[in-house]
């Protein structure tokens, strides 16, 4: 006997071979298959008299088969199946190309329904490669699956067509649609005016009308987002049951610190710092995301939190995604805390260092960490490797990191009775509602304004004809002692670097091809180096930087660039995150069409880090209207959030914000841009958990939630 949990392998029409293919679509059980919803629908619901058929139309007709013919054209090597059907109003031909097996299933005098595009041939109108379905004279329009109705079209994979999916799903629906459990509380179904589950699942696949299809979709979208909201809210509630070290705010010390800075904090920085310091006073672990555009000054804010924590007698861990960034934070923070008696140390897979000390082995450093001699440890992922134990860690700061597991958090400290506070920082501009869902377990703070000394970076899209002018401009800037970044999408011509995920900062959107064609030239760093150093700027000091280089080498190059010993730094996207070189005033990007707007914005944030006027040149060879329009948004806007919205419109949420890593189901993914639904599900989830924190009264919902949580991999 089949049931909802039966493996698809055991469904008679499916079997092992198809089961394997279905697995690629994430379908393992009968229930999974029934919840595999169409990506779209074809409207073949209007069956028209043959006489009314017009060229260019997608038409659905039905009638009796008058003749079936099979021919083979030797010239083109094609099999052509030709079927003529007739109804009371006339005859029409259907042609199928290279589907010779059709002859076996289509016979004279059978009735058939056809749906497809109408073309004009030399013998009149014909349907080319139409969808077809046998019908029976006594029930002509009833119970159609592939024609004569609104037809579900699924995302397919090799060997699994929509036609086949309809063929297997429909009988399973007939058998199971009334057996699918209603996981939503009845009062919620009523309040939201949802179709009951048995009806909804049917209408999602074989809708009577588009209104029904929408109603069904709305219900399942709600369900998915509700599960997502429940899961993050529960996670947060669980976390709040832990204890943390309360760190009272030392207002005098904070004032002293801000006074020691060479600049004044912006109002936003001040507010964010205050919120964070207030969080740290509580005996429950802080769980906060600090968002702020590139260059908005997040580091200072986190340094205040770190200093205050140290003054309360605890340790701080500060983690950055790359060696370069971690080192930069180590130098910057050590510098800021120079007068404040805090021992700052650095640890990465490559080395260890203690501020103000000549040499230290990793072993010595770890010892000092465990005895509490080191106050702030800054580093890469190496911080969560084995053997790294803090004496009494009270605060973890994450810079542009992916999610950080609760377990990892507990692992870091010997002090087992408490859990460290967490401050996560990102420049990825996620709209607030979206963040509230995807990071529903985090509180949000936003640095809204940029430091006052910043000038707007002048951005220009440069087509082929203006290249020379841009080069002249760059020469001039360099003459005045400024630094130039050049970004190329690839290292070598054949290298696949550009299509790989950047290793740093999971939040940063991937490179992607936008209207890119394979034979178009891809600028490669090495090739570009040849060109720039030999032809364009023979007198300037140009250096390459790319991901595969040794960390020490990268760092040395960055330092040389910072000091002004390099004029032009030619690089792949490795420089995209956080590197601070105030003397750099030009960001020139080759193949700009290949990057998302958010990523271009990240690149641009590398310049404009001083009071000097900075520039961003977007070089593009892609002349399409759409590309122009997209890149022009960069000229107009210097706001990362606006650009992210633009990206969202053009590319959809699936491509944005590194969402691939969230592992969300497709329906949830599609609905992440539906802010209204996000808010609705959030408030429903909250209400539900307030009434029943463990969902004990809703065992079916609870079970589904568990299943959902196993599927998404947040950590
Ligand atoms: P991000 O938010 O991108 O991490 P950083 O913290 O690296 O930005 O800050 C960028 C630069 O701005 C640093 O050189 C920092 O010293 C400087 N900075 C930070 N806050 C201010 C401010 N309020 N006024 C002027 N400069 C500032
Ligand atoms: Mg930063």
TrEMBL record:
The keyword Membrane does not apply. Residues 490-649 form the Helicase C-terminal domain. Keywords: ATP-binding, DNA damage, DNA recombination, DNA repair, DNA-binding, Helicase, Hydrolase, Isomerase, Nucleotide-binding. GO terms for molecular function: 3'-5' DNA helicase activity; ATP binding; ATP hydrolysis activity; DNA binding. Pfam families: DEAD, Helicase_C, RecG_dom3_C, RecG_wedge. Residues 279-447 form the Helicase ATP-binding domain. One of its GO terms (biological process) is DNA recombination. InterPro entries: ATP-dep_DNA_helicase_RecG, DEAD/DEAH_box_helicase_dom, Helicase_ATP-bd, Helicase_C-like, NA-bd_OB-fold, P-loop_NTPase, RecG/Mfd, RecG_dom3_C. It comes from the Bacteria. Its EC number is 5.6.2.4. The keyword ATP-binding applies. It is an enzyme of class 5 (isomerase). It catalyses: ATP + H2O = ADP + phosphate + H(+); Couples ATP hydrolysis with the unwinding of duplex DNA by translocating in the 3'-5' direction. SUPFAM superfamilies: Nucleic acid-binding proteins, P-loop containing nucleoside triphosphate hydrolases. Belongs to the helicase family. RecG subfamily. Plays a critical role in recombination and DNA repair. Helps process Holliday junction intermediates to mature products by catalyzing branch migration. Has replication fork regression activity, unwinds stalled or blocked replication forks to make a HJ that can be resolved. Has a DNA unwinding activity characteristic of a DNA helicase with 3'-5' polarity. This is ATP-dependent DNA helicase RecG. It comes from Candidatus Staskawiczbacteria bacterium RIFCSPHIGHO2_01_FULL_41_41.
């Amino acid at each position: 006997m089949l049931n909802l949990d039966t493996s698809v392998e055991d469904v008679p029409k499916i079997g092992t071979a198809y089961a394997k293919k279905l697995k690629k679509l994430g379908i393992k059980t009968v229930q999974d298959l029934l919840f595999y919803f169409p990506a779209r629908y074809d409207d073949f619901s209007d069956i028209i008299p043959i006489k009314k058929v017009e060229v260019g139309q997608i038409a659905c007709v039905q009638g009796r088969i008058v003749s079936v013919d099979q021919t083979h054209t030797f010239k083109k090597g094609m099999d052509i199946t030709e079927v003529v059907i007739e109804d009371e109003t006339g005859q029409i031909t259907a042609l199928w190309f290279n589907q010779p097996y059709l002859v076996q299933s289509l016979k004279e005098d059978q009735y058939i329904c056809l749906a497809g595009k109408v073309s004009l041939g030399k013998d009149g109108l014909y349907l080319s490669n139409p969808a077809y379905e046998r019908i029976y004279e006594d029930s002509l329009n009833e119970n159609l699956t592939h024609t004569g109705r609104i037809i579900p079209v699924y995302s397919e994979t090799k060997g699994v067509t929509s036609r086949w999916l309809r063929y297997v799903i429909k009988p399973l629906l007939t058998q199971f649609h009334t057996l699918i459990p209603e996981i939503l509380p009845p009062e919620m179904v009523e309040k939201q005016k949802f179709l009951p589950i048995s009806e909804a699942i049917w209408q999602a696949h074989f809708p009577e009308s588009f209104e029904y299809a929408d109603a069904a979709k709305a219900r399942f979208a709600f369900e998915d987002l509700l599960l997502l909201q429940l899961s993050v809210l529960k996670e947060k509630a669980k976390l709040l049951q832990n204890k943390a070290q309360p760190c009272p705010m030392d207002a005098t010390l904070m004032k002293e610190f801000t006074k020691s800075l060479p600049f004044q904090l912006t109002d936003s920085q001040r507010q964010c710092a205050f919120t964070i310091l207030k969080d740290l006073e509580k005996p429950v672990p802080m769980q906060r995301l600090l968002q702020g555009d590139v260059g908005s000054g997040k580091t200072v804010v986190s340094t205040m939190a770190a200093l205050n924590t140290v003054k309360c007698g605890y340790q701080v861990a500060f983690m950055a995604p790359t060696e370069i960034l971690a080192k930069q934070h180590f130098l910057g923070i050590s510098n800021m805390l120079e007068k404040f008696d805090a021992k700052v140390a650095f640890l990465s897979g490559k080395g260890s260092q203690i501020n103000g000390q000549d040499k230290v082995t990793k072993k010595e450093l770890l010892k000092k960490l465990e005895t509490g001699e080191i106050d702030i440890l800054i580093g890469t992922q190496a911080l969560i490797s084995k053997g790294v134990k803090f004496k009494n860690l009270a605060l973890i700061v994450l810079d542009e990191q992916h999610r950080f597991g609760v377990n990892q958090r507990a692992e870091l400290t010997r002090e087992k009775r408490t859990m460290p506070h967490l401050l996560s920082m990102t420049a990825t501009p996620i709209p607030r509602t979206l963040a509230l869902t995807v990071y529903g377990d985090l509180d949000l703070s936003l640095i809204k304004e940029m430091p006052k000394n910043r000038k707007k970076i002048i951005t220009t899209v440069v087509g082929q004809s203006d290249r020379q002018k841009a080069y002249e401009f760059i020469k001039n800037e360099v003459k005045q002692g400024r630094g130039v970044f050049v970004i190329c999408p690839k290292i070598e011509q054949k290298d696949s670097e550009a299509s790989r995920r950047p290793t740093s900062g999971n939040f940063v959107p991937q490179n992607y091809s936008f209207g890119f064609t394979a034979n178009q030239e891809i600028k490669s760093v090495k090739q570009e180096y040849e060109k720039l150093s030999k032809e364009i700027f023979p007198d300037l000091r140009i250096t390459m930087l790319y991901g595969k280089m040794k960390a020490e080498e990268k760092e040395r190059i960055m330092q040389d660039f910072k000091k002004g010993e390099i004029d032009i730094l030619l690089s792949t996207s490795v420089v995209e995150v956080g590197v601070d070189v105030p003397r750099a005033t030009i960001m020139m990007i080759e193949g700009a069409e290949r990057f998302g707007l958010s990523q271009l914005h990240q690149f641009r944030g590398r310049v404009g880090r001083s009071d000097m006027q900075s520039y961003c040149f977007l070089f593009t060879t892609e002349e399409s209207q759409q590309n122009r329009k997209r890149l022009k948004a960069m000229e107009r806007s210097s706001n990362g959030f606006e650009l992210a919205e633009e990206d969202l419109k053009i590319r959809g949420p699936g491509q944005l914000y590194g969402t691939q890593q969230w592992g969300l189901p497709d329906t949830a993914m599609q609905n992440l841009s539906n802010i209204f639904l996000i808010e609705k599900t959030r408030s429903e989830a909250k209400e539900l958990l307030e009434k029943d924190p463990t969902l004990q009264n809703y065992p079916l919902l609870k079970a589904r939630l568990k299943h959902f949580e196993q599927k998404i991999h947040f950590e």
